Amino acid sequence: MAESLPSCRREFVETAGRLCQRLGLPRSTGQIYGLLYLSARPLSLDDISGLLSLSKASASTGTRQLLAWQAVKQVWVPGDRRDHFEAIGDLRELLRTGYEKFFRPRLERSVTKMEQLHANLEADRKSGALSKEDHAFCKARLAHMATMQNRVTKLLPIAEKFF
Amino acid sequence: MAESLPSCRREFVETAGRLCQRLGLPRSTGQIYGLLYLSARPLSLDDISGLLSLSKASASTGTRQLLAWQAVKQVWVPGDRRDHFEAIGDLRELLRTGYEKFFRPRLERSVTKMEQLHANLEADRKSGALSKEDHAFCKARLAHMATMQNRVTKLLPIAEKFF
DNA sequence: TTATTTGTTCAATTGTAATTGAATGTTCTG
DNA sequence: CAGAACATTCAATTACAATTGAACAAATAA
């Protein structure tokens, strides 16, 4: 397997890594996806760690992460015992599963969280921890936030159809 | 000023803090915004650091951060020399400026980055660093990514109108 | 079976960014 | 003006998460 990357791939890998880093994900994971995204043939862990100058441990955890996100799949290469990895090239699908696995559950939990907060607010009002005016104010703000939540919830399916 | 928070605000503050943390922003900044969002009256730096058990330094940097994001505004409280802060309650506006200041520039830069990558790809092809098949493969993948970029670019104004 | 190749797990290190206390600068007050 | 009240800046600390090397486990080959 090659030991160095052509400059276009090098730069792509770097960009992907920084994007992930900005999103709070491990840079190395982004680099791995970037590398695979521009690889015509599946790569082994050794290829990955070699080309990206990562430890095999990082390559292993990174690929497993990507497998969990369904951003990558394992493919069998005849005549080679090692696992090989290939990027899922369809970014629409990636977005879709990302939404399903990441955004939606969070959004749903945020709705129940809002309900909790509202209940809490009423309890505070009854226990006297909150004045009438403060209670009204908080209630209005929470209500506004809830309508925003609703809009996001309604927008996302539209966005999904858009892709 | 009060020394402790009613439970509803306590929980809201915690939630806001964790949300920011997840987004890669300082937790304390989120907590400050959460606190102000549910405060009927503007708070001073001392109020903030006291109620959230933060150093005044953190309160200062956090509020300046929020000012830069236009998530908070300074208000003058008669008879008090200190700066006081109030949350911008309109989350729509917050989203809008967040999009303008954060997303849009990034999206634009990503477009020029794609052009760079494409140019790079052609250069690699010419220099022989890339086989014909590899070149075709990479070109297709970059093209696919570009169309996704276009869709995002087109979707965002729609989403903006939606709010 | 034993030796070798491959992949994962885990403790330790490293790097990065948030947080703080102390120092500094600035504005008000008496 | 001197002194106090505030806010900011900065160096140092702390907390956290990515990364690694080494130990371990599993599978294959000889």
Structure description:
The structure is a homodimer of 163-residue chains. Chain A has two domains: 83 residues, Arc Repressor Mutant, subunit A; 71 residues. The first copy, chain A, contains six helices and three strands; from the N terminus they run H-H-E-H-H-E-E-H-H. Chain A has a three-stranded antiparallel sheet with strand order 1-3-2. Chain A is elongated. The two termini of chain A are 36 Å apart. In chain A, helix 1 runs antiparallel to helix 2 and helix 3 crosses helix 4. The longest helix of chain A is centred in the last third of the chain and has 37 residues. The first copy, chain A, has 163 residues and is mainly alpha-helical. Helix content of chain A is 71%, strand content 6%. The mean pLDDT of chain A is 93. Chains A and B meet through helix 1, helix 5 and helix 6 of A and helix 1, helix 5 and helix 6 of B. The first copy, chain A, binds a DNA duplex (30 and 30 nucleotides) through helix 4.
